[in-house]
Amino acid sequence: MGQVKLISRFFEIEGCRLRRVYEENGGYAAARRVITENWTGEKIIETLKKSNLRGLGGAGFPTGMKWGFVPRDQEGPRYLVVNADESEPGTFKDRHVMLHAPHLLIEGIIIAAASIDAEEAFIYIRGEYWEPYRVMLEALEEARQAGYLGENIFGSDRRLEVMIHRGAGAYICGEETALLSSLEGYKGFPKLKPPFPAVKGLFSRPTVINNVETLSYVPIVIDKGPEYFAGLGTERSGGARLFGVSGHVERPGVYELTLGTPMRELIYTHAGGVRNGAKLKAVIPGGTSCPVLRADEIDVPLDFDSLARLGSMLGSGGTIVMDETTDLVEVLLRICRFYSWESCGQCTPCREGTGWMTRIMERVAGGQGNSRDLDDLVDIAQKITGNTICPLGDAAALPVISFITKFRDEFEARVASAAAAAGRPQATERV
Amino acid sequence: MPVAFNDQQMKTVRHLLEHYPRKNAALGDVLHLAQEAFGHLSPEVEEYVAGLMELPVSYVHQVVSFYTLYLRKPVGKYHLMLCDNVSCMICGAGELLEHLRKKLGIEVGGTTADGRFTLWTVECLGACEAAPVIMINDKYYGSLTTRKLDELLDGLE
């Protein structure tokens, strides 16, 4: 358990953006093996299943199983889509992968595409990521010139074209079905599932959608063997992942840890502990949509199931550390504003609910709140969860419920001081 | 300036249209190209793109207005996009915003009278390890303090 350098070792190699340097360090060996030895889709998928690699975009769905859902007996194209729309607040690992190890991602794409016999792949990258976009463009061109992309890749009879599509600023497009809508030239509206993208995805064709980091672990799984990778993690969460630590720590950055490593080790050993020796107050574990943890909960092992047992989520691994000086009322207000702004507006509970929660939180933070507001917030949040097409509704609701439940005193104090200042009773009846 | 792509841009458009199995899927890319060519996506540009791609203007407008990076109004020479989401907020983005408002004499969304700066606050830029972060046109700058921000702005042409 602890720190490993599977993906992150490439971050430390000078010039690893270049194919030559990447190959000197063992790059493209896995893809070359899979393609030239003509591995069947079943063999690739079986290997991934054994590795226990799970989706690292946030949902944690087992990767091999996802690939296995694609029907392979139908005529016509199948697509691979790479989700590089990294937008969950607190998340920045995929940017590091694309900037420092673009060929690792391309290698993962080659293997994933082979597993479903896809001849075309699309990388959907968020519009703000200009530098990673340019780095990826260059790397794709290099791979094409080397014969790793295009016709007859690695001298085989396989063909693979990879195209890169820039998003235009919409958090919702990180949700896989919204991403597909956007890639098809529409507003980024999520679609109802089923049908699942594996059956009816991009341009209504069978499609696999994977996060950048997930695909970047694929060559490593093939290279080192699925047993090695699975053995690094816990029973149900294979291997390792990149944790992005930000906020009040001495050394914010990306740290690669085996799954199951305690959060305390991430914060105190690797990220250098809380800045200026201050006391820890709260941690958001996997991007702002994940329920907040109190300082006394950070001994939790960082794997999907342990975080779930604690009522939170491992999410994207984006860890936001907040010290004792942090005003959690302001933080929750900021989170509410974010999800309200980014709600696509399709589903009423999310469209209206996120707006209501934001307006109530503005009142609470602005010193106009009452304790009834806190109950109303939790009530609204509970009525959003599970009642929307996509998970944005839940993403907006879970922080509200967790912040108010776990730090009720701080919220109560804010409304009590507001009531005292206004010379009115603390709890007012609903009109 | 008349709203029309030049020959080189038209070549790019034709290439983009072949890029996808359905023509309208190229709309996002064509809009990025149009914004680069014309500065922002005015109603005239929306009409032009719709005509070029044989799509209803209302459809093009729907797409343009859904995304924040498609500019419907002109912006200054330097488009300042300050992240004030959680990681940046707790690392001092609020102070930077106050500083910028005073220094430039504009509110969020505004442009200086000389057309040099437009000030926006934006959602998480995905560079939280360097919070607080600002994006100026197509570049990120991180680990900012008011002094570093001053040096950065004063160093611009």
Largest interface: A-B, 54 and 41 residues
CATH superfamily of the largest domain in chain A: NADH-ubiquinone oxidoreductase 51kDa subunit
Q: What is the overall pLDDT average of chain A? A: 95
- Counted by DSSP, the helix tally of chain B is 7
Annotated CATH architecture of the largest domain in chain A: 3-Layer(aba) Sandwich
Give the name of the CATH superfamily of the largest domain in chain B: Glutaredoxin
Q: Helices and strands of chain B, in N-to-C order?
A: HHHHEHHEEEH
Euclidean distance between termini CA atoms of chain B: 25 Å
Q: Whole-number radius of gyration of chain B?
A: 18 Å
CATH topology descriptor of the largest domain in chain A: Rossmann fold
Helix and strand composition category of chain A: alpha/beta
Query: What number of structural domains do the residues of chain A give?
Result: 3
The percent of residues in helical segments of chain B reads 40-55%
Note the overall shape of chain B. Answer: elongated
Low-confidence runs of at least 5 consecutive residues of chain A? 427-431
Please identify the top-level CATH class of the largest domain in chain B: Alpha Beta
Question: Can you describe this structure?
Answer:
The complex is a heterodimer of chains A (431) and B (157). Chain A has 431 residues and is of the alpha/beta class. Chain A is 44% helix and 12% strand. In chain A, the strands form 2 sheets. Chain A has a 5-stranded mixed sheet, covered by helices on one side. Chain A has a 4-stranded parallel sheet with strand order 3-2-1-4, sandwiched between helices. Chain A is globular, with a radius of gyration of 23 Å. Chain B is α+β, with helices and mostly antiparallel strands. Helix content of chain B is 45%, strand content 11%. Chain B has a 4-stranded mixed sheet with strand order 2-1-3-4, with helices on one face. The chains are: A alpha/beta (431), B alpha+beta (157). Chains A and B meet through strand 3, strand 5, strand 9 and helix 13 of A and helix 2, helix 4 and helix 5 of B.
